[in-house]
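::Encoded backbone::
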Amino acid sequence: MPILARSHATMPTDAVLFGQFPLIAPPHRPALAQALGTARRMLLQAEPMRMVLTHLAGTVESLFPGSIASVLVLDGEGLLRNGASPNLPADYLDAIDRIKPDPRVGTCAAAAATGEVVLTPDFAADDRWAELRHLPMALGFAGAWSMPIKDAGGRVLGTFGTYFRERRAPTPEEQQVVGLLAPFAAQAIGVRAA
């Protein structure tokens, strides 16, 4: 049975419920607390990585309707692979499969390369998407953002991306929610890699 690393993953869900994360809207707190509890249980029961990551992506999508979440995982060759993207079509995932982290390419590839959150409020206006923008725009997406998923030592394991159908940046609440979910993703990915 894996032991959870020290991170937000070990925080009691009551911290969410009782407002220790003030950017999370009160109506979202019970659902988020339940989702965190479920993720913790899944990790303790050694559920497969894809199941845990699918749960985390689904949590974002259920809390923020209209958002499409995607978790990409760095493989042994250092390339990004689909970890869980339950609502992205297979042809899109095939097109971005095995993309190399690069600060000048896309949102998730840039986040994986820099270890920093990367915002793309408008695919059409962002040079990082010059060669790829046709892919998400063909699906009706206008913008995205990505947070790197890191282990306890700060090593990037993958990315937690969210696509939007309108041109916009993530809200502070969306960023805080993904920030709470990312350590659970790191734990799931880390168990697989161990």
